[in-house]
Design goal:
Length: 641
């Protein structure tokens, strides 16, 4: 059975759309060759992070039409809809079964009475209703034959019923048929694609051995990147992309990848969907929120308009984020806004107390999340108990969030340097909860209560008056190739004890690959950027054999101080730094080794749309080699220093 399943996958690989095959050919020939393009996902409706509501955190599989429409009605009545919350998304639990022999999916009629139409089972009346209210509608499926509740909630009364085949409700082998049903026939606008079907149905699983489900050889493994078959998963997402284009040719769709940071998806999810989950599920526990936040917080260069990091849905309304915990609820909301995370409400809004609805409706904070520049906040100060996140806005202003993760109040010195603003000019902070303004020069002291996040819009004079550091514009910098050849778990992500497994077993191990990925103002392994003893407060840290794509936005010059970072272990290999503009070589360094002072690179990028920054080294050496693009910036002036 397992063998057959594997053959099935291989067969499907051969059906990859031509463009994917061509991209693979490009990558196989020379992944560092300039592509003159932007390879992250831009199809669909992800120009800003999706906002809306999802049924899972509030109801799990115990969903029905009244619950969903009740929450939608509150979004409408409370004014949240007018503030941008527009996707109303069904999660797991809606399917009755797959009809045989034609394979059409049937909706649970007792839960969705409007689906019982003359022509059979259809969500069209439901989506029509949502559309008439001004909303968009979202649906849930899985990469495999079965969903996550079938994998992990065996006792749920809400699971699909019927024969083994009738209970196979996922996309595996059915992509064209199901995407057509969801988008062309039923009128959905958003799909979340989960991955339990390709993770939890191996031949040795009890639920498979008992004959309850068919085996599908797992291609994802939460605990081990090396046991994941990444090309197979990518191929299936590629087919889903193609089906969405087929059945929504006007591009009015949103694709949400949900493989929880497994399979190194934090490096490549940005190429396949509008949002991509960076971790396992959030729970309404402070410590779990920290884990989910951490899984995305250092992935600032992997999120862009069209392709966002997704640390999971909001849990405002329950547990540590209920109406008795407004400090925590405000923190959760502020942090998700700063990360450009999807703002998907996970509460039963029919009963949510108004103070929590007011948090979700803070228009100033929503505006940070929806800022058109699409820059995820970067970490200006990082410690286990306190972090300062700074976000560059399209207006030229900034936002800053000061996040006290711990249990002790902290008096924080916020400095002009954290903000990359001049210390001799006034800086004005607008508190986005109280709306109060304060002005200071150089630095100011702020009291931050336990678990509080102080969040401000910031006006001041930029240290770099003539342009932007690339690390201030991560939404326009895409690590197309980040140099990571052996993905490793990021040890800096908070390892909370999982609520659903208690404390049985050996505890949480570092599990989310991403360590060694490209970073803003940091080396790939969290050190400060430094070349031959010279520190760079701004810049991009990345491994050698990497290629960054940068959207230009009308600047005239790219300038950087390049070299092998002092943190590199390999002192022998030489790295050449190259700058391309729309595919043409514009500047090239001499071969640089560890300990050599930085070389200045300047490139005339006037009129160029896509700049590419390549750091190339030969084969050999057994350590990954951190290199630094120190002070890398796009400037308005053409003058070369
Ligand atoms: C997974 C996902 C959740 C939710 C459930 C549904 O756990 O990560 O967000 O969709 O499945 O079963």
């Amino acid at each position: 059975m397992q063998e057959q399943a594997t053959l099935g996958w291989r067969h499907r690989l051969a059906l990859l759309p031509l463009c994917l095959a061509m991209a693979a050919a490009h990558a196989a020939s020379d992944p560092l060759a300039p592509s003159a393009g932007w390879s992250a996902y831009t199809a669909g409706q992800g120009a800003t992070p999706p906002m809306g509501w999802n049924s899972w955190n509030a109801f799990a599989t115990n969903i029905d039409e009244a619950k969903i429409l009740g929450s939608a009605q509150r979004i409408f009545d409370s004014g949240l809809a007018a503030k941008g919350y527009r996707y109303i998304n069904l999660d797991d639990g809606w399917v009755a079964h797959r009809r045989m022999p034609d394979g059409r999916l049937l909706i649970r009629p007792e839960r969705f009475p409007s689906s019982v139409t003359a022509g059979g089972s259809s969500f069209r009346p439901f989506t029509d209703r949502l559309h008439a209210m001004g909303f968009k509608a979202g649906i849930y499926s899985d990469l495999g034959r079965n969903t996550c509740s079938q994998a992990y909630s065996p006792d749920s009364p809400d699971l699909p019923k019927g024969s083994v085949l009738e209970r196979e409700v996922g996309l595996y082998g059915r992509i064209d048929q199901d995407i057509k049903l969801y988008f062309a026939d039923w009128g959905f606008d958003y799909i979340k694609v989960d991955g339990c079907g390709v993770r939890a149905f191996g031949a040795n699983e009890a639920k498979v051995r008992s004959g309850q489900y068919r085996a599908l050889a797992p291609v994802l493994d939460m605990e081990s990147v090396t046991r994941s078959d990444i090309p197979v998963v990518q191929a299936e997402f590629g087919q889903i992309n193609a089906a969405l284009r087929r059945y929504r040719p006007n591009g009015d769709f949103l694709l949400s990848l949900c493989i929880w940071g497994s399979g190194d998806v934090r490096a490549w999810g940005k190429n396949f969907g509008n949002v991509s989950r960076t971790s396992d599920d959030i729970t309404p526990a402070w410590s779990r929120m920290l884990s989910n936040f951490d899984s995305a917080a250092k992935r600032e260069l992997y999120a862009h308009p069209g392709s966002w990091n997704d640390p999971d849905m909001l849990f405002i309304g329950k547990g540590d984020f209920d109406a008795e915990h407004l400090v925590e609820a405000r923190s959760h909301f502020s942090l998700w806004a700063m990360l450009n995370a999807p703002l998907l409400i996970g509460a039963d809004l029919r009963t949510t107390p108004q103070p929590l609805v007011d948090i979700l409706g803070n228009a100033d904070i929503i505006a940070l999340n929806q800022d058109p520049a699409g820059n995820q906040a970067t970490l200006a100060y990082d410690a286990d108990d306190l972090q300062i996140l700074v976000k560059q806005l399209a207006s030229g202003q900034k936002a800053v969030a000061i996040f006290n993760r711990g249990v002790t109040a902290i008096d924080v010195d916020l400095t002009a340097e954290h903000l990359k603003l001049r210390k001799d000019a006034p800086i004005t902070l607008t508190d986005l909860w109280s709306k109060a303004d304060t002005t200071f020069t150089n630095e100011t002291r702020l009291h931050v209560a336990p678990r509080e996040t102080r969040i401000f819009r910031v006006q001041g004079q930029r240290t770099l008056a003539d342009g932007l550091y690339l690390s201030e514009m991560p939404g326009s910098v895409n690590p197309a190739v980040d140099g990571v050849t052996q993905p490793q778990a990021d040890p800096t992500i908070f390892r909370s004890s999982f609520a659903w497994s208690g404390t049985k077993g050996p505890g949480e191990r570092p599990m989310y690959a991403g360590w060694g990925g490209a970073r803003a103002d940091s080396t790939p392994y969290g050190q400060l950027l430094q070349i031959a003893g010279a520190r760079y407060a701004a810049g991009i840290g990345i491994l050698a054999n990497s290629r960054l794509e940068v959207r230009n936005h009308g600047y005239r010059r790219l300038s950087a101080q390049v070299g092998v970072d002092d943190s590199a272990q390999d002192r022998a290999r030489a790295v050449t730094f190259l700058v391309y503009g729309d595919g043409k070589l514009l500047a090239k360094s001499k071969p640089m080794r560890w300990g050599q002072p930085a070389q200045a690179l300047n490139a005339d990028v006037a009129g160029v749309k896509i700049i590419e920054l390549v750091a190339r080294t030969g084969a050999g050496g057994n350590a990954q080699l951190p290199v630094s693009w120190g002070d890398a910036a796009l400037l308005s002036s053409a003058r070369h220093d």
